[in-house]
Design goal:
The radius of gyration is 16 Å and the shape is elongated. Helix 3 runs antiparallel to helix 4. It is α+β, with helices and mostly antiparallel strands. It is built from 4 helices and 4 strands, in the order E-H-E-H-H-H-E-E. The protein has one domain: GTP Cyclohydrolase I, domain 2 (2-Layer Sandwich), CATH 3.30.1130.10.
Length: 120
């Protein structure tokens, strides 16, 4: 088993209705998700077989579905749902998820707000 192996998914963008304010719950807004999946990649590195690794395409599909079809008040909850879904994939030992709200509804000059969680 190899320690420190990671699969990175960067910049996955999807629109969803997540937020506390009524307009956030009614009008879809853009979110970006970045994921680091900890997995033993040594077997796949030797075999060259998709079945021996975490299928990042399937993970990305799950993440996009969660962002677009679920509704949560907090991005913290959205990040938890994404982490739980990633950890259902065979071979995923731990995951770090960053969810970025690209247009936060605050009356200041802010590019984005984000939360990052790590779950074993």
């Amino acid at each position: 088993m190899s320690d420190g192996d990671l699969i990175h998914i960067r910049g996955l963008r999807a629109t969803g209705t997540h937020g506390v304010l009524p307009e956030e719950q009614a009008r879809p807004q853009p979110f970006q998700v970045d994921i680091d999946i900890e997995a033993d990649l040594s077997v796949a590195g030797a075999s060259d077989e998709l079945a021996d690794t975490v299928d990042y395409g399937a993970v990305a599909d799950d993440v996009a579905r969660i962002v677009t079809s679920e509704h949560h008040a907090l991005v913290e909850r959205l990040a938890e749902r994404i982490a739980a879904a990633v950890l259902t994939h065979a071979g995923a030992r731990a995951v770090t998820v960053t969810v970025t709200k690209l247009r936060p509804p605050i009356p200041l000059d802010v590019d984005a707000v984000a939360v990052t969680i790590r779950r074993p």
